[in-house]
Recover the amino acids of this structure.
């Protein structure tokens, strides 16, 4: 079984300050990890992913995420937050072993709302 | 943009009525998914399809059925809607991304209210 936890329902940060959104995961094998963002009244947009390789992954809109295998975490970060970053952020995981036979299914965390204040 | 559209985008219905939501894709992807999004629960998988007439249940499939008679269309049906099915419904497709692994891309969503 695979699972994802986003321990914070909401994160508040001042514009220009660094932003961190936390995510921890559980899979039986190696993880395939994603971050998605949802702006108000929109669908989910892909931000970045981790498969293998460098633990620091860079994505869209200046976001990056750090994979930490020992802590089973994949925290999303942005060095300097913008008001326009205010949105709902979702972390998702798939066990790489799962593959097509199990439908390439993702498991999502509950989401973290980010509010960036001017 | 993975060429995914959903219809209707908004619907209000009454308890006990049947409802069908449509997901349409233009890129002939094999895998399609239906999720519901509720506060505090993130996205939960309802059903998915791995080909024409091939479907399987997700974690919250009770009260929902699906059909896929054509590659491009994946229908979600609530046979008898209940207030607990008030939610935002997202369709997704899975396609090969960089790195050789499948990634999911999402439609714009359908907001369903059951009174």
């Amino acid at each position: 079984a695979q699972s994802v936890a986003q321990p914070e329902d909401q994160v508040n940060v001042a514009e220009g300050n660094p932003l961190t959104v936390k995510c921890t995961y559980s899979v039986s094998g190696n993880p395939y990890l994603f971050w998605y963002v949802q702006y108000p009244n929109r669908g989910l947009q892909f931000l970045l992913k981790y498969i293998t390789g460098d633990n620091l992954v860079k994505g869209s809109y200046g976001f990056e995420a750090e994979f930490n295998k020992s802590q089973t975490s994949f925290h999303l970060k942005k060095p300097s937050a913008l008001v326009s970053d205010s949105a709902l952020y979702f972390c998702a995981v798939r066990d790489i072993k799962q593959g097509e036979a199990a439908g390439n299914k993702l498991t999502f965390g509950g989401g973290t709302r980010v509010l960036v204040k001017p | 943009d993975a060429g995914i559209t959903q219809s209707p985008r908004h619907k209000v219905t009454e308890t006990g009525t049947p409802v069908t939501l449509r997901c349409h894709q233009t890129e002939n992807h094999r895998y399609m998914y239906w999720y519901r999004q509720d506060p505090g629960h993130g996205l939960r998988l309802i059903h998915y399809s791995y080909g024409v007439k091939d479907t399987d249940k997700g974690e919250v499939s009770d009260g929902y059925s699906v059909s896929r008679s054509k590659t491009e269309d994946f229908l979600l049906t609530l046979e008898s809607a209940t207030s607990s099915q008030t939610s935002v419904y997202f369709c997704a497709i899975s396609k090969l991304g960089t790195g050789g692994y499948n990634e999911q891309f999402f439609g714009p969503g359908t907001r369903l209210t059951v009174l």
